[in-house]
Automatic annotation (TrEMBL):
SUPFAM superfamilies to which the protein is assigned, alphabetical: PLC-like phosphodiesterases
A Pfam match: PI-PLC_cat
CDD domains listed in its UniProt record: PI-PLCc_At5g67130_like (cd08588)
Higher taxonomy: Eukaryota, Viridiplantae, Streptophyta, Embryophyta, Tracheophyta
Gene Ontology terms, MF aspect: phosphoric diester hydrolase activity
A biological process from GO: lipid metabolic process
Protein name: Phosphatidylinositol-specific phospholipase C X domain-containing protein
Region (Disordered): 293-350
Length: 350
């Protein structure tokens, strides 16, 4: 295993789509929220369970920045989940308590110029900021994960608004990330098309790959049936479409639901491929890249973690499909072997 010694783009991270849209949320405004939820636990809980990528939709609303679904292109009371500052403070608390963790935030940005950087400031997050001038040149590797941690550059923030990179230090997502089509249109068998804003999936100028895997209308039952074997199979489809590259971010709805190892297992598979070319992170040896070893048959059943991590830090780690793991850290390490070896991806080259 490589711990944190590889470039950031040689790791895969469990990511939640619409991380803020939680089942049962009651609006701070007293309004009933009628927009559909995508997750079942708080952002703080997601981070403790090993989620390391958060997808947030930010709007100007009620004289503040809110995380919200839109109605006719606007945030209104019955689609507004929570002020952005509330969630950003949760991220700050997590980073402060877990000094070896790295979190990436993807912002679908409808906020006015200056408002987002103001709430990041107010949340105390700028001290963790990965600066835009450290972003890689097109087609180049990111800094080593261990160097990002040592420099305290542990929060990567991407915006969908190009102009904010120069004015607010928010990295323009499409300069650095390719992303497949979200929703049901992106789930066609045998295809992994890029979303409209993204460069093509096989563009190697962008060093990071985000793979969406969720339906247009959020469905817990669909997540239960598809967040394991079909998700792992989807990794290979998008690998083929992405110039033979494995995804760095695996974005799902209802990340704790599956009929098997779930999104954490899929992230273990991607980490095995990215870090050592093996079927799963549990098969990587401690010696060198490209050397794989089957875990012993006495190893425990599948870890409910998205292998991204080294020795567990005080709280976090990618979550279990059925019951969240108590901990997991950013420096990836092999998870305990699954009950059945994850052979769904096959033996494709990394």
């Amino acid at each position: 295993m490589h711990g944190a010694a590889l470039p950031f783009n040689r790791y895969s991270w469990l990511t939640t789509h619409n991380s803020f849209a939680i089942v049962g949320t009651k609006s701070p405004l007293g309004s009933a929220i009628i927009s559909p939820p995508n997750q079942e636990d708080s952002v703080s809980s997601q981070l403790r369970n090993g989620v390391r990528g958060l997808m947030l939709d930010a709007y100007d609303f009620n004289n503040d920045v809110w995380l919200c679904h839109s109605f006719a292109g606007k945030c209104i009371a019955f689609t507004a989940y929570v002020p952005a500052l509330t969630v950003l403070k949760d991220i700050e608390a997590f980073l402060a308590s877990n000094p070896s963790e790295v979190v990436t935030v993807f912002i679908e940005d409808y906020a006015a110029p200056g408002s987002l950087s103001n709430v990041f400031n107010a949340a105390g997050l700028t001290k963790y900021w990965f600066p835009v001038d450290r972003m890689p040149a097109p087609g180049k590797d990111w800094p080593l994960l261990k160097d990002m941690i040592a420099d305290n550059h542990r929060l990567i923030v991407f915006t969908s608004k190009q102009g904010k990179q120069g004015t607010e230090g928010l990295a323009y997502q499409w300069d650095y990330v390719v992303e497949n089509q979200y929703g049901s249109q992106g789930l066609v068998d045998g295809r992994c098309p890029s979303r409209a804003e993204s460069k093509p999936m096989d563009s190697t100028a962008q060093s990071l790959i985000l793979m969406n895997f969720f339906t247009t209308n959020p469905s817990q039952s669909w997540a239960c049936g598809n967040n394991s074997a079909p998700l792992v199979s989807r990794l290979r489809t998008c690998y083929d479409a992405s110039a033979k590259r494995w995804p760095n971010f695996i974005a799902v709805d209802f990340y704790m639901r599956s009929g098997g190892g779930g999104a954490p297992l899929a992230t273990d598979v991607a980490n095995g491929r990215l870090q050592c070319g093996c079927d799963t992170i549990a098969h990587c040896t401690t010696t060198k890249s490209g050397t794989c070893a089957m875990p012993s048959s006495s190893a425990p059943a599948a870890s409910p973690r998205a292998a991204g991590a080294a020795a567990p830090s005080p709280g976090p780690g990618p979550a279990a499909a059925a019951s969240p793991s108590p901990s997991m850290s950013s420096s990836p390490r092999a998870a305990p072997a699954p009950a059945a070896a994850p052979v769904l991806v096959g033996a494709a080259p990394s």
